[in-house]
């Protein structure tokens, strides 16, 4: 290809990846539903976006390193404190039973349905065991199932990807060698691969932990060091054993997210932006390699395979994995209805299928298009049906707001009481023990002492909370915490605004959602409260009582809508207004 063609191809891939994710965001659908058909269409219309022509032999190793980055980011989101008891047991069994049953069933069906040889069918079965956080995460964020279900599915997706990648590599080498090594030898190779990944992960985690603790890296350099460490360790592991870098990447992410004492937050906007872009680039690139001609004789048989995987295999795996646990019937049902395939399946199929075709393995040319069909079908099916299924099974989290109020001043505790009387599930956090005692005395749920510190220091997700109200008397603390907490909760982070004449270091210069009218700053609220003002509730059935100021509205469905400096919500019949009396 000429230099101009390479420039056009690379530019198109980046633009299509970003545009597809933008469209998906506007339509409130998983990005894969847009990325895959866009990449396929682009590949059918022009050869300029075909990564095998653009990058040649470098495409496959670049894919492996990109997937390692994605799995490192997934590891950063795994909290070991919540991986306990029945959650851990279900995840372990989902991975083991899912691997065995899915691989065997898919391989057994691929032989008659797709006309594959035994080697190609086993290769396809190994590819289709994976799920992946890049697919499951967005679907769960859209559906909002119960916290336990979300944790189980995210852990399963994050851990089964490296297992699937290594199993795919072992099956590939077994098929290429003609199966001469034997079953015992393959088990030994699998154990060695796991060991290589673990050793690499431990070494990489040690280096990262030392750098982040000792060197006091800033945000930019801290992100650069993480990227270099993940890519370097994953590349080294893959040189020793194929795809072992995936295990190392997940372990490194787990370590950085869960070991105490790191000097900077692990997940930063730039790193997350990079990972999001990498996901888009991979899906556009890989789907562009699938030609319409290759789908001609694969589409219907592959859809038949999807039917069995969705309606038989996954429910069976879920039922067996949940035996003896306290999961409800609805939770078991939803586990049986959530197994989309994602980037690792596409990457593995893209990496190994061409070599098997060159080797002359029967049916190997159908591996990539069949995988493409399974990914598109499962993502579309689960993406469109997961919400209604979750609601039907009763496993959707309530739309009712569950705000975290940060602060322990008397008026803040008064506000907590008012919001609770309006029907909200209120959680509070305060730094001083005397304030925490006052919160307990008010009968309001008190967040554990380490919860807020963990969230502001390491980007840990505050599970179950729908928003944060930063109401302390320290304007700079509120401003800094609002920046650190963005992305750690599902909803919005709000803070009190500083006084107009404030000389604070941070507060006057940061953006974000600022609560209440400009005159209602922290000191002013404290002053009014000391003079006798109180926080009260009033059901909206007419005008607001004279001398009262609206702070919040609580809708009939339990949603909390604050008044901010950019404006306030319009009252509706059935709302409860939270007011500040004169």
Give a written overview of the molecule.
Helix 21 links the parallel strand 4 (467-470) and strand 5 (493-496). The protein has 582 residues and is an alpha/beta fold. The relative contact order is 0.11. Helix content is 62%, strand content 7%. The termini are far apart. Residues 263-267 and 454-461 have low confidence and may be disordered. The strands form 2 sheets. A 6-stranded parallel β-sheet has the order 3-2-1-4-5-6, sandwiched between helices. Helix 4 runs parallel beside helix 11 (244-258) and helix 8 packs parallel to helix 16 (343-359). The chain contains 22 helices and 10 strands.
Q: How do the strands and helices of this protein lay out in sequence?
A:
Blueprint: H1 3-27, H2 32-45, H3 51-55, H4 59-76, H5 85-114, H6 118-127, H7 133-143, H8 147-176, H9 183-214, H10 219-240, H11 244-258, H12 269-288, H13 292-295, H14 299-321, H15 329-335, H16 343-359, H17 367-393, E1 403-406, H18 410-421, E2 427-429, H19 433-441, E3 445-446, H20 449-458, E4 467-470, H21 475-485, E5 493-496, E6 513-515, H22 522-530, E7 535-539, E8 549-554, E9 560-562, E10 576-580
Parallel strand pairs: 1-2, 1-4, 2-3, 4-5, 5-6
Antiparallel strand pairs: 7-10, 8-9, 8-10
């Amino acid at each position: 290809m000429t230099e101009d063609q390479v420039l056009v191809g690379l530019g198109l891939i980046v633009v299509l990846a970003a545009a597809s994710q933008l469209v998906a965001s506007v339509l409130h659908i998983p990005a894969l539903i847009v990325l895959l058909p866009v990449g396929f269409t682009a590949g059918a219309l022009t050869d300029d976006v075909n990564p095998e022509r653009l990058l040649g032999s470098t495409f496959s190793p670049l894919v492996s390193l990109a997937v390692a980055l994605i799995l490192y980011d997934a590891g950063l989101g795994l909290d070991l404190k919540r991986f306990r008891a029945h959650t851990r047991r279900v995840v372990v069994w989902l991975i083991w039973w899912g691997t065995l049953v899915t691989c065997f069933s898919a391989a057994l069906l691929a032989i008659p349905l797709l006309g594959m040889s035994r080697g190609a069918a086993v290769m396809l079965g190994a590819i289709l065991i994976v799920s992946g956080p890049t697919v499951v995460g967005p679907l769960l964020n859209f559906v909002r199932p119960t916290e336990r279900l979300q944790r189980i599915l995210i852990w399963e997706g994050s851990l089964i990807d490296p297992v699937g990648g290594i199993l795919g590599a072992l099956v590939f080498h077994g098929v290429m060698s003609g199966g001469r090594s034997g079953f015992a030898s393959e088990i030994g190779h699998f154990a060695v691969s796991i060991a290589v990944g673990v050793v690499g992960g431990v070494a990489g985690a040690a280096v990262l932990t030392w750098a982040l603790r000792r060197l006091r890296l800033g945000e930019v350099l801290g992100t650069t060091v993480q990227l270099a460490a993940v890519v370097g360790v994953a590349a080294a592991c893959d040189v020793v054993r194929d795809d072992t870098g995936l295990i190392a990447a997940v372990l490194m992410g787990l370590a950085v997210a869960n070991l105490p004492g790191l000097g900077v937050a692990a997940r930063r906007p730039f790193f997350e932006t990079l990972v999001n872009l990498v996901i888009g680039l991979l899906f556009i690139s890989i789907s562009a390699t699938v030609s319409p001609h290759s789908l001609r004789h694969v589409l219907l048989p592959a859809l038949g395979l999807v039917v069995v995987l969705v309606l038989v295999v996954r429910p069976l795996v879920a039922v067996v994995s949940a035996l003896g646990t306290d999961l409800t019937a609805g939770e078991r049902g939803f586990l049986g209805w959530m197994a989309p395939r994602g980037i690792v399946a596409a990457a593995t199929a893209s990496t190994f299928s061409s070599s098997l075709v060159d080797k002359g393995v029967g049916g190997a040319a159908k591996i990539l298009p069949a995988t493409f069909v399974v990914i598109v079908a499962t993502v579309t099916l689960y993406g469109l049906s997961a919400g209604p299924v979750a609601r039907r099974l009763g496993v959707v989290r309530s739309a009712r707001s569950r705000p975290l109020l940060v602060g322990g001043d008397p008026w803040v505790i008064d506000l907590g009481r008012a919001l609770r009387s309006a029907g909200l599930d209120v959680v509070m956090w305060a730094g001083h023990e005397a304030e925490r005692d006052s919160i307990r005395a008010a009968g309001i749920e008190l967040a554990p002492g380490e919860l807020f510190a963990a969230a502001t220091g390491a980007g840990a997700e505050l599970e179950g909370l729908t928003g944060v109200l930063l109401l302390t008397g320290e304007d700079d603390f509120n401003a800094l915490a609002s920046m650190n907490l963005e992305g750690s909760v599902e909803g919005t982070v709000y803070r009190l605004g500083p006084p107009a004449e404030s000389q604070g270091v941070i507060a006057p210069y940061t953006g974000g959602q600022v609560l209440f009218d400009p005159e209602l700053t922290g000191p002013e609220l404290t002053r009014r409260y000391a003079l006798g003002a109180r926080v009260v509730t009033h059901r909206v059935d007419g005008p607001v009582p004279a001398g009262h100021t609206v702070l919040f509205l609580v809708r009939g469905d339990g949603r909390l809508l604050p008044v901010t400096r950019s404006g306030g919500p319009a009252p509706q019949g059935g709302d409860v207004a939270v007011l500040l009396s004169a």
